């Protein structure tokens, strides 16, 4: 783990990319269900708030192994959830 600031920046970048992708699908591609796109936008915002709060709240500050394991799991969770959101956005086109 580099540091919390870089992780927060990465979360913001992923969220911005997902959000803009969803807006582009919603506004410029004909045939996209607007309600599904709005639900996806809500999920993206929930994703951002959940993971930013998880970055700030971790236990075991005394034990470096626990902190390392916590942030390793957090980065895996962020990656899998971001991939799932990206797949959901791509499904809007179908």
Walkthrough of the structure:
- It is a single chain.
- The chain is mainly alpha-helical and 94 residues long.
- It has three helices and no strands.
- It is elongated and about 55 Å long.
- The chain starts with a helix and ends with a helix.
Question: Helix count?
Answer: 3
How is the quaternary structure best described? single chain
Strand content: under 5%
User: Given the helix and strand composition, which structural class is it?
Assistant: mainly alpha
The span between the termini is: 38 Å
Sheet with most strands: none
The helix content is over 70%
Write down the domain tally.
1
Number of strands: 0
Gyration radius, to the nearest Å?
A: 16 Å
Could you say which overall geometry the principal axes of the C-alpha atoms support?
elongated
Order of helices and strands: HHH
Low-confidence stretches: none
Task: Kindly report the average pLDDT value.
Answer: 90
List keywords for this structure.
94 residues; mainly alpha; 81% helix; elongated
Helices and strands, with pairings:
Blueprint: H1 4-28, H2 34-56, H3 64-91
Helix pairs in contact: 1-2, 1-3, 2-3
Summarize the structure in short.
This protein has 94 residues and is mainly alpha-helical.
